[in-house]
């Protein structure tokens, strides 16, 4: 005869142990099967390029995607903090889901491809990368233009 066994399942940080004895309905039915579902929570990591590069390798389940995120973060750390021209090309990876946003639109404009500093001041960029599992990585980067 076939039975159903339930195991403690963690959901949203709680654990709910259930009986490991088959219930009366499953003990009498040979067609029932058992299943266990586990809900994994996506994580959000924000910090420097170095922090994101390290954490992506530990958190993102797909090793190739994790390496791509780590490599993009390392490339972002190589951006010039002080630029002599109005436009600076940004590192790109077409295989990743990410966006680049200017937190100071009055000073600079940003896209995945480049940052354009249009006024005097510190340009603050936020690069947000999301992996296929829904984990999110945020990098803050500051640049400014010299005259």
Please tell me about this protein's structure.
The structure is a single chain. The protein is of the alpha+beta class. The protein contains 3 helices and 10 strands; from the N terminus they run ββαβααβββββββ. The strands form 3 sheets. Strands 3, 4, 6, 9 and 10 form a 5-stranded mixed beta sheet that branches. Strands 5-8-7 form a 3-stranded antiparallel beta sheet, with no helix packed on it. A two-stranded antiparallel sheet has the order 1-2. β1 and β2 form a beta hairpin. α2 packs antiparallel against α3 (63-77). The radius of gyration is 24 Å and the shape is elongated.
Parts with pLDDT < 50 across at least 5 consecutive residues: 1-29
Report the count of strand segments. Answer: 10
The H-and-E topology, N to C, reads as EEHEHHEEEEEEE
Rg from Cα: 24 Å
**Global structural class:** alpha+beta
- Helix content range of the residues, please? 10-25%
Query: In this structure, how is the largest beta sheet organized?
Result: 5 strands, mixed
Given the C-alpha coordinates, what overall shape results?
Answer: elongated
Strand content bin: 25-35%
Number of helical segments with 4 or more residues: 3
N- to C-terminal distance: 82 Å
Average pLDDT works out at 81
């Amino acid at each position: 005869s076939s039975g159903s066994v339930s195991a403690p399942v963690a959901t949203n940080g709680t654990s709910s142990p259930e009986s490991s004895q088959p219930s009366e309905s499953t003990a009498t039915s040979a067609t029932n099967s058992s299943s266990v579902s586990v809900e994994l929570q996506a994580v959000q990591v924000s910090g420097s390029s170095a922090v994101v590069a390290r954490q992506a390798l530990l958190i993102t389940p797909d090793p190739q995607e994790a390496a791509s995120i780590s490599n993009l973060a390392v490339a972002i750390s190589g951006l010039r903090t002080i630029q002599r021209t109005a436009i600076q090309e940004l590192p790109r990876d077409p295989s990743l889901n990410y966006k680049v946003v200017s937190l100071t639109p009055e000073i600079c404009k940003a896209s995945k491809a480049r940052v354009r500093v249009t006024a005097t001041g510190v340009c603050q960029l936020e690069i947000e990368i999301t992996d296929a599992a829904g984990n999110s990585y945020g990098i803050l980067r500051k640049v400014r233009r010299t005259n």
